[in-house]
Design brief:
It is built from 5 helices and 4 strands, in the order H-E-H-E-H-E-H-H-E. The chain is α/β, with parallel strands linked by helices and 129 residues long. Helix 3 crosses helix 5. Helix content is 43%, strand content 17%. It has a two-stranded parallel sheet. A two-stranded parallel sheet has the order 3-4.
Length: 129
């Protein structure tokens, strides 16, 4: 997860899915770089630390009575692979991710994390725009 608007829209959806099925949730943040909150010049810096972001999401689920775990992992530029690995380790039934298109020249040549998840996952993927 990140602090994008897409993720903000995805969290209530995940909460309703979890409550409706009595499922547990794993909140995952992937740090693509060691600096964590500051990306390349084409990325907007996060408004809070990854730890704060994950803690807020965990609190949302706990306050609604949903069992929740959290993970923050590093990926060295391989976010989709890190997410898929975590999904396998946690035996996820479905992946839910915010999706935002790339608006950079580099985005024309490289697929977004959401696109990579949709292509490579061996389980259902729900991308929330």
């Amino acid at each position: 997860m990140d602090d994008s608007e897409a993720v903000s829209r995805a969290l209530p959806l995940v909460l309703e899915m979890a409550r409706g099925s009595d499922a547990s949730v794993t909140v995952l943040h992937v740090r693509e770089r060691e600096v964590g909150c500051c990306g390349g010049s084409w990325e907007a810096p996060m408004r809070c630390s990854p730890d704060e972001l994950v803690a807020d999401a965990v609190q949302l689920f706990r306050s609604a009575g949903v069992e929740v775990r959290s993970q923050i992992v590093g990926s060295a530029g391989r976010a989709a692979e890190a997410i898929l690995d975590a999904a396998d380790q946690n035996e996820a039934d479905v992946l839910v991710a915010g999706w935002h298109p790339r608006h950079t020249f580099g985005g024309l040549l490289e697929k977004s994390v959401g696109q990579k998840l949709a292509e490579r996952a061996n389980r259902p993927v729900l991308l929330v725009p």
